[in-house]
Write a structure and sequence with these properties.
Largest sheet: 8 strands, antiparallel, barrel
Helix content: under 10%
Strand content: over 45%
Radius of gyration: 16 Å
Shape: globular
Order of helices and strands: HEEEHEEEEEEE
């Protein structure tokens, strides 16, 4: 099966992404008042679906048991048929949400047929959450430093990301 080139480069700067992310309004502890400094970082979030400004990937975001979750929801049909996903979990550490994105992608070389299906984990940090924007940074495979045939990530870089509510 031939997959578009973007199946290999899923735009982990979604997220990723993988990452991904926050719905304090849906948080199980929403009845608790945030501390004044925290109120600016964790504002009520009216939308459940967020869109990456960099990749166009969309993520369902929620908080449950002090853990922030984000899942890629607009997976292209061909990638979905091959089981692609990005699932992010982050825990609150001080002012940030820190965690990882678990990624599974069918991998095609130069738009050719799928040669492998790769699992990998990338780190993610969310530094700001408001009702209109989620920002942070995600670890991403450096361009030309990912081997589709072996699923090895030789080198990574940190990339900033921003998600906005889906309109």
């Amino acid at each position: 099966m031939k997959l578009p080139r973007h199946v290999v480069n899923l735009g982990l700067v979604c997220c990723v992404g993988v990452a991904g992310a926050v719905l304090p309004a849906l948080h199980a502890q929403k009845s608790q008042k945030p501390e004044p400094r925290q109120a600016q970082k964790v504002a009520p979030v009216p939308s459940r679906i967020w869109k990456s400004e960099a990749s166009g990937n969309e993520y369902r975001v929620w908080i449950e048991n002090k853990t922030l979750h984000a899942e890629w929801v607009n997976i292209p049909a061909q990638a979905a048929e091959n089981g692609a996903y990005i699932r992010t979990t982050c825990r609150r550490v001080g002012e940030k949400w820190i965690g990882t994105s678990k990624i599974f992608v069918p991998c095609a070389v130069a738009g050719g047929p799928v040669v492998n299906r790769c699992h990998f984990v990338m780190r993610m940090e969310i530094d700001r959450v408001t009702e209109n924007r989620i920002t942070g940074r995600v670890e991403d495979p450096k361009r030309n430093k990912f081997d589709c045939r072996t699923c090895k990530v030789a080198e990574t870089v940190w990339k900033n990301f921003a998600w906005v509510p889906k309109q």
